[in-house]
Amino acid sequence: MNTMRIKEIGIKLGVPVSTIRFWQNEFTEFIRPERTDGGQRRYSDEDLTRFAQIKELVYIKKMSLDKARQSLQPGDASREMIDWSKTSILLTGGTGSFGKHFCKVMLAKYNPKVIRIYSRDELKQHDMAIEFAHDSRLRFFIGDVRDGERLRRAMNGVDFVVHAAALKQVPACEYNPFEAVKTNVHGAKNVIDAAIDTGVKKVIALSTDKAVNPVNLYGATKLCSDKLFTQGNAYVGEGKTRFACVRYGNVIGSRGSVIPVFLKQKESGRITITDPRMTRFWITLDQAVELVLNGFKYMEGGEIFIPKIPSMRITDLAKAIAPECAIDEIGIRPGEKLHEALTGEDEGRTAVSYKGMYVVLPNFSWWNRQNYAEAVPVPANFVYTSDGNEEWMTVEQLRELVYGPASSVEKSELLVVNG
Ligand SMILES: NC(=O)c1ccc[n+]([C@@H]2O[C@H](COP(=O)([O-])OP(=O)(O)OC[C@H]3O[C@@H](n4cnc5c(N)ncnc54)[C@H](OP(=O)(O)O)[C@@H]3O)[C@@H](O)[C@H]2O)c1
């Protein structure tokens, strides 16, 4: 029933009546008030929602009226393309394995205006500058995510932030718990504050499967970081900054991961498996970068983007790498899980399947969503785990991934990621 007067709409949205009247005239196809016998307009809840969307598009996203009208059309509002050549990016943890691959892909394919690398160690930055042939689109900033003031300076004039810096070794975080909290939790807060203060448009933080039902401090700090980023949207006020996360599991071939370990053990004729029931997801660095780019494309704020990727059985990987070797079963290690989970039970309630990803939508929505019109809700009690996955790598596919043809860049790089 249409009961609201124009004044009430103005009060609810914190916008002058004259502006509401102007929007009413400009967006007649979207707002349909009823008239009283005396000819006065009365608005419905649906009209209120439309006005809130218009406010978001015109006031906050600073869209022209035409563009706002286009966005309000039913369907998917994610058509907005990112013009990377006009986009400045700050990348915390830019000298890490994700960071370097992100730069490689961006510089080769998207030609960003500039990528500012933000990390602590000057030697890694020096080596990276050489590796990238002193590409002028890369700038190197020494800084610690624990240092909010430095972050604010580094984000000056930046459009997008990718937050990849973290302490991520499980044993190191267990042994140095306060350090893990300072980098992964306080660092996350500093990134959020600096992004809001400097008017950054979009921020994507990298999360991990270990943040789901965490059993170690690394996972717990990343869960905390996820909560800070998704909830960070509530601190933005009238600003334009939006925060979201991407979440994935072990990267194939990364430092300390199982492939380099098996390859080394193979030489001795015996390989060790913690538990033959163990399963894991597979993701390549290319897919991780693509996930971040999709996050930037579709995010409205508060989401966790999760890629749909295949699983493998650890025993199949052993067969693929060293079929001739004897296997020693050594038992599951502290802080290790039998299977990986990329969503928790609670997150399943708000998750949707969208554009080849699962997207955990926030419990709290601070604005009316334009995207996700084509999203498909997942079944009740949905959890995305490596043992419950529908897509599996066969032994042959695994063998090809590890020993694949040298001509394939992605495959040949597999074993040298992060040394
Ligand atoms: N690798 C995986 O398998 C995996 C899986 C899921 C999620 N992730 C997540 O992905 C992100 C990137 O991982 P990665 O594999 O690229 O890690 P990585 O290779 O260990 O790189 C970490 C980066 O962070 C920087 N860093 C560490 N502490 C910092 C601090 N206090 N201030 C500023 N920079 C700091 C490091 O440089 P300096 O030491 O010079 O500061 C380095 O550039 C992390 O958030 C991680 O949790 C990784």
Low-confidence stretches are 406-419
Strand order of the largest sheet: 5-4-3-6-7-8-11-15-14-16
Q: What is the CA-based Rg, rounded?
A: 24 Å
Query: Counting H and I runs of at least 4 residues, what is the number of helices?
Result: 16
Bound molecules: NADP nicotinamide-adenine-dinucleotide phosphate
**Count of individual domains:** 2
Class derived from helix and strand content: alpha/beta
Strand content: 15-25%
Helix content estimate: 25-40%
CATH uppermost class of the largest domain: Alpha Beta
- CATH fold descriptor of the largest domain: Rossmann fold
Shape: globular
Oligomeric state of the chains? single chain
Residue-averaged pLDDT: 90
CATH homologous superfamily annotation of the largest domain: NAD(P)-binding Rossmann-like Domain
Number of strands: 16
* CATH architectural name of the largest domain: 3-Layer(aba) Sandwich
Q: Tell me the span between the first and last alpha carbons.
A: 65 Å
**Largest sheet entry:** 10 strands, mixed
Task: Report a brief summary of the structure.
This protein is an alpha/beta fold.
What features would you describe in this structure?
- There is one protein chain.
- The protein has helices at residues 6-13, 17-26, 45-60, 65-72, 97-110, 122-131, 148-154, 170-175, 177-198, 217-232, 258-266, 285-298, 314-321, 345-348, 395-403, 409-413, and strands spanning 34-35, 41-42, 88-92, 114-119, 138-142, 160-163, 202-208, 242-248, 270-273, 279-281, 304-307, 311-313, 326-329, 351-354, 357-360, 376-377.
- The chain has 16 helices and 16 strands.
- By secondary structure, it is an alpha/beta fold.
- The strands form four sheets. Strands 5-4-3-6-7-8-11-15-14-16 form a ten-stranded mixed beta sheet, sandwiched between helices. Strands 1-2 form a two-stranded antiparallel ribbon.
- The relative contact order is 0.10.
- It is 40% helix and 16% strand.
- The protein folds into two domains: 6-73, Multidrug-efflux Transporter Regulator, Chain: A, Domain 2; 85-250 and 282-309 and 342-386, Rossmann fold (3-Layer(aba) Sandwich), CATH 3.40.50.720.
